[in-house]
């Protein structure tokens, strides 16, 4: 029986030399793999109240859309700077080299709403931390952060747990 991890392809030296890129397009392209991933991402939240699913650009949109549909709730995108058309709030975060900014529409979440944050991969946790801060600034309550892949060597899980988050991952790749 194939696991979610078995559907993920590794491409060496992308986007630059020395990086082992974990490619989820092969997981998403497979009907069984994709459904397995969505079902497993949702597993811990059965019976819990979730008002909205928040997806982090870009692959978090693919997962988050499918999860929101499955739960029959709305989907909210958190995007890189300058992509959202309406009034936004912004949050800077640290990248390997330099800084980037994530944004959410300022009316996308209501105070007290319970949200699930979704992305494909957890590395340093910087991207998700920015997403958490944006959701919290809008008064939402984060039920959990769910990822297909964790790269444990990069410490993202520990960072998010320090922020009080419940982190759910489907598989990890050591030595990333
Ligand atoms: C990747 C990945 C996560 C993020 C994780 O996205 O999809 O969103 O990095 O890294 P972190 O935990 O160190 O923040 P990327 O920034 O490459 O952008 P993309 O999803 O738009 O391709
Ligand atoms: Mg991303």
UniProtKB/TrEMBL annotation:
The UniProt entry lists the main location of this chain as: cytoplasm
- Entry annotated with the keyword Cytoplasm: yes
- InterPro entries reported in the protein's UniProt record: Ade_phspho_trans (IPR005764), Adenine_PRTase (IPR050120), PRTase-like (IPR029057), PRTase_dom (IPR000836)
Q: What is its EC number?
A: 2.4.2.7
Tell whether Transferase is among the UniProt keywords.
yes
Q: What reaction is this protein's catalytic activity?
A: AMP + diphosphate = 5-phospho-alpha-D-ribose 1-diphosphate + adenine
Enumerate the Gene Ontology biological process terms. Answer: adenine salvage; AMP salvage; purine ribonucleoside salvage
On the tree of life, the source organism's domain of life is: Bacteria
Record's keyword terms, sorted:
Cytoplasm, Glycosyltransferase, Purine salvage, Transferase
Q: Where is the signal peptide?
A: none
Q: Where is the Phosphoribosyltransferase domain?
A: 41-152
NCBIfam families recorded: apt, PRK02304.1-3, PRK02304.1-5
PANTHER family with a match to the protein in the record = ADENINE PHOSPHORIBOSYLTRANSFERASE, PHOSPHORIBOSYLTRANSFERASE DOMAIN-CONTAINING PROTEIN
Q: How does it assemble?
A: Homodimer.
The family line of this record is: Belongs to the purine/pyrimidine phosphoribosyltransferase family.
- Role noted for this protein: Catalyzes a salvage reaction resulting in the formation of AMP, that is energically less costly than de novo synthesis.
- Put simply, this protein is called Adenine phosphoribosyltransferase
Originating organism: Albidovulum denitrificans
């Amino acid at each position: 029986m194939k696991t979610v991890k078995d559907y993920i392809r590794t491409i060496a030296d992308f986007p630059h030399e020395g990086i082992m890129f974990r490619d989820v397009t092969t997981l998403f392209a497979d009907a069984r793999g994709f459904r397995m991933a969505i079902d497993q991402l949702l597993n811990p939240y059965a019976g819990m109240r979730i008002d909205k699913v928040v997806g982090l650009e870009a692959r978090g949109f693919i997962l988050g859309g499918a999860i929101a549909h499955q739960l029959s709730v709305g989907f909210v995108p958190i995007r890189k700077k300058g992509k959202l058309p309406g009034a936004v709030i912004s949050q800077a975060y640290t990248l390997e080299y330099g800084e980037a900014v994530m944004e959410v529409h300022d009316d996308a979440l209501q105070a007290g709403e319970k949200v699930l944050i979704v992305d494909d991969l957890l590395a340093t946790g910087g991207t998700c931390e920015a997403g958490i801060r944006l959701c919290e600034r809008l008064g939402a309550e984060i039920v959990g952060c769910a990822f297909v892949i964790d790269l444990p060597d990069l410490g993202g899980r520990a960072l998010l747990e320090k922020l009080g988050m419940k982190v759910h991952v489907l598989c990890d790749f050591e030595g990333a």
